[in-house]
Each structure stands twice: as structure tokens, then as C-alpha cells.
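Protocol check, entry for the methods section draft. Step 1: assemble the input record (protein sequence plus ligand SMILES). Step 2: submit for complex structure prediction. Step 3: store the C-alpha cells unaltered in the notebook. Ligand used here: zinc ion. Step 1 record:
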Amino acid sequence: MNAPDSFNEPIVRVRELKKDRVNFVLENVDLAFANSFRRVVMADIPTVAIDLVEFEANTTVLPDEYIAHRLGLIPLVSANCEDAIRYTRDCTCLSQCSYCAVQLRLDVTCNDDNTMEVTSNHLEVVPFQDDFIHDNLEHGDEKAKRSQFFGHPVGKQDPGVPPVLIAKIRKGQELRVRCVAKKGIAKEHAKWSPCSAVSFEYDPYNKLRHTAYWFETDSRAEWPVSENGKEEEEPRDDEVFDFNAAPNKFYFEIETDGSLSPEDVVERGLNELQNKLANLLLGLKAGPDEMLEDWTDSQPQAPVAAPTNGGSWGEGTGGWGRGSSPARTGAGSGGWNTSPGAGGSSSAWGASPERQIGSWNA
Ligand SMILES: [Zn+2]
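Step 3, stored output:
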């Protein structure tokens, strides 16, 4: 039989598609591609997540930074994130505006004798106070490209989805917080990942012997073949081992946290991978000298200027590992992601009762 020209083109066959997960078979690609695709899907697709939290009142039993961290992990609707919002580093504003951020408020007080649950459903998206100034200064069509519930907590509009629990409060306790959600990718912080799980399997019969199963008496009895075995031919007992065989069929399962749909995640993941390869090719074509120039140009000139998200893991702000003494918090060097106040001066965490507004990176 003559193979058609498209015989070796990648094939995607979706086996199951639900609101938050997709299961598909990817054929005619190699293991390196499958691995790269998985990494890109997990770490390189932008979403929005709460990145800065200002506490106006917190009389709950949980400390500020505990709540800030929880707020950061709440999935927010990020559909069309690529075009609907810009990175703050690409914006002309100083730290946040409606073009590069979404503002949310949490204002909850318990007034009765029962324990009250503060959940993601209490988070309200509110416009920035100085919105009209931004609209005069900024130019862009980002805001027009947002869907109705862009930046809202996932599941808030859907009674079937249980909300994310933030804290439990009792009578007289209060939580009043201003949050700023920003665009980012999971390479910087896992809270920006659109996926909760990405996995793939290949070669269910282990014909390629990429794995050596540990077993007591019979590996076949102790290692049952997965469902994906139905997709492939069972090897005969007398089959000779093929040294040159390579896997080309991969069984993927992608589960999202609801910030993006699984279709979006797959599509944008492929786009992102394509962009990366295109950049690599471009870099190779440019020649070594030009590449070096480009590289030095693109390096930040002053690594001291800490980014808005304080001490993430990088140079300059004393990332994790270095200076492990807890006393360093006062020195303004900041631990990872919970450095007190973007400005650093607003007193150390939890120390003085007169502290009014301490902002924390979620
Ligand atoms: Zn901005």
C-alpha cells in the first residue's frame, strides 16, 4: 500500500474532552517532542493570578502571609489571557493599572454565632479608582478582548463548583483585603500554571524496554497493562528485540484548574513550542557574533532593581537557600515571595501592632 504524503505528519486524536480535562493520543512525534510539549503546557502558558495583597484588616486566626499565599493559588478565569492583558513590565504604568492588572476585594465580617467560611466566592472584582487616568494615558485594546468574567475566581458563576476555602472565622472576626492579580507564567511561580496535572504514557507493553519492572515471580501478572494497551499490538513471546525502535505514539491526559479550557491549553502549548523553535532557528541563522550582541543587549542592566514580585527565586533579592537565618526578614532582603512590603520599609511582618497596611506578595 502506498503511504500518503501526510503519513508522517503528527496526528492528534481526542479520546475524551470534558470541561476541565482532555485525553488524547499524539502520533508521529518523538519522545523529545512529547516531553517538551508537556513542559511547555505546565510552565509557559500565561494566566492571571493574585500577585499583590494589601491587608486592611485581619483579625482571623491566620497570619497575613498565610492568607496571601492562599489567595495567590486561587484559579482566576484567564480566557484569552495572551491578548486580554499585558505584563506589567510591558506597561507604561508604575506598578498596576487596568491594562496590566485586575483588582479584587475581599471584605468579610462574621456577625453570628456560627463559624463562617470565607471562600473564593467572596472575592469581588472591582475597577481601579484611577481608571479614567489610565484610560487617558494608556493605549491598547486589551480591555475590549476580555470575556465577561475575566479575572473572577473560577467557579464563582457556577453553583456546581465548590469554592476554594480561604479561612474560617467566628463572631467578631474580620478580613478586609485588596488584591491585585497579574499576568504571569508558571516558570516564575506555580500559581500561574493553568494545569493541575499533565501526564503521558507510551509503549504500554514495554516493548522498547525503557523500564525494568521489579517483580517477585511474574512481571506480567504483577504489572497489568494499562487501558492504552488496547491501542497497540501485544508482543509475541518469541518476538526479537528491536534495538532501533523508538516510541512515536503518546497517550496524553491534561487536567486544568479551570483558568483556561483544556482546548486552549493544548492549542497555546503548541503555539508556544512553535515560537520557541522559531526563535531558536532565528538565533542559529543570526550567526554567533550577532547572537552574542543580542544576548548582551537583552540582559537587564541593573539586577539590583528588584521586580514587583519581591523575592522570587532569582538574583538580587536573596532567593531561597541563601542566608537562612530568620533574622534577615528585617533587613529588607526578603525571603521567597513573602517579602514585607514592596517598598520594604513598612515594618517587619507581624511585628508591630501599629502597622496599618502591609502589602505582601502572594
Ligand atoms: Zn499597567
